[in-house]
Amino acid sequence: MQVVYKASVPPLVAPARLDPFLSQKLRFWSLVAMLMLVYVHAYNLHSRYLQPATPVDEALSVGTWLQYFLANGLLRFRIPILFAISGYLFAHHDAGTPHGQRVKRRVRTLLVPYLLWSLIGLAGTWALEQHPYTRLLVQNAALSIFGPENPFVSGYSPGELLIRWLLMPVPFQLWFLRSLLVYNLTYPWLRKALDHAPKVYFGIAGLLWLVDFGLPPLFEGSGLLFFALGVWLRRRDKEVLLQPRWFRLLPFAALWVMLLSVKTWLAFHLDQPPVLPMLLLHKAAELLGILVMWFGSNALVRTAMRRRWFQWLTGFAFMIYVVHVPLINYATEAVLLRWPNQQLLTFLLLPLAIMALAVALGATLRRVVPGAYGVLTGGRGL
Asked: Is the Cα dihedral 82, 83, 85, 89 positive or negative?
């Protein structure tokens, strides 16, 4: 008797292209998530380093409440949704191309830009340290991973410079590219786990995400869960445009805002907010944010993507991503040194200026030196 092995998931045959509206929606969120990222990194209250249980040392006011509510609440679903989009698109093209060939492409699109922009961040910070005023900005921004006793790039040892270049960049947002490269490299094993034991995989990955566990630079819990979710949705050919029957926009949105309001209240009213409740509120809000914004944004996506200027801007999402840090950190210190009482206006307006600068730089490079622009962006936006 002949035994025929039947895989739990049939081989994926990618269509010629994505559903047109889904393609528009992915482009829309690739840009909007970057805009949100800039605002999260523009947070200027103390302490500046945002974690789910970060307290606020500033006095409660409309401005301080709004900053925390947005930067450490409403906008924090941006990384999970970016990982899910990346996983979905990577799985979508999982047909007809050997994995080794795809890895070579990812070296060009992920590793090369990572190394170049990390080097640019190091060199730019070193240059700022050569003048007393800008040196003060670097010191006040406190981006050094080696502590306040070793705050300057110009004081790093060769080994510390290598760590900063390869593993812990001054443009700290580059960790996303590093993690994405790891998930792309390990995709065949990830795919096998999702095809044959998805419940086990999501159970473990979900727990790691819930407790905020990671082993940088190898993986982060958020990436393990949401990149794999995107892969699983595409390989199972799940409907991702129509909202599920159990989803109701207004109740879910109200619950999302309520949880974030409670989290913000705890951050202001407790000297040290309890870690576990704050973590659970944070994670629940991430999930609600993804659901509410993904399924509730269809009309906004259609409106935005009908605008030629918005479509043009989507080509510079990567430039906004790589340029804004550490620039926004140093610019924030400069503005607040001059106007120390304008924290809210700085938070609201400075990101717009930084994003405009990133887009202008990208547009100029693309026009004048398209070859260099292609290398710096991994071919994005050409």
From this structure: positive
Nearest CA-CA partner of 279 in 79, 102, 76: 76
Q: How far is CA 308 from the centre of its chain?
A: 25
Q: Is the dihedral of CA 239, 240, 242, 248 positive or negative?
A: positive
Closest CA to 193 of 180, 203, 208: 203
Sign of the C-alpha dihedral computed for residues 279, 285, 287 and 289 taken in this order: negative
**Do 265 and 52 touch, CB atoms closer than 8 A?**
no
pLDDT digits (tens, 9 = 90+) for 28-79: 999 999 999 999 999 999 988 899 999 999 999 999 999 999 999 999 999 9
Tokens of 228: 């794999």
Cα gap 293→332, rounded to integer Å? 29
The pLDDT value recorded for residue 14 is 47
Domain contains 11: no
Helix ranges (DSSP H) in the chain: 20-41, 62-69, 78-92, 99-106, 112-128, 132-141, 158-166, 175-185, 187-196, 198-210, 221-235, 249-269, 275-295, 298-305, 308-314, 317-338, 343-368, 370-377
As for how many domains the chain has, the answer is 1
pLDDT above 50 (res 7): no
Pairing between β-strand 219-220 and β-strand 214-215 as defined by DSSP bridges? antiparallel
Task: Give the pLDDT of residue 93.
Answer: 86
Q: Is residue 236 part of a domain?
A: yes
pLDDT of residue 5: 36
**Which tokens belong to 20?**
């047109």
- The torsion defined by the Cα of 140, 144, 150 and 154, in degrees rounded to 10, comes to -90
Range of the domain at 64: 20-377
DSSP result, 40-68: HHT--SSS-S--TT----SPP-HHHHHHH
Mean pLDDT of the chain: 93
- Is residue 13, in this structure, part of any structural domain at all? no
Residue 8 in domain:
no
- Looking at residue 4, what is its pLDDT? 39
Percentage of the chain lying above the pLDDT 70 cut: 96
Question: What is the distance between the alpha carbons of residues 184 and 176, in angstroms, rounded to a whole number?
Answer: 12
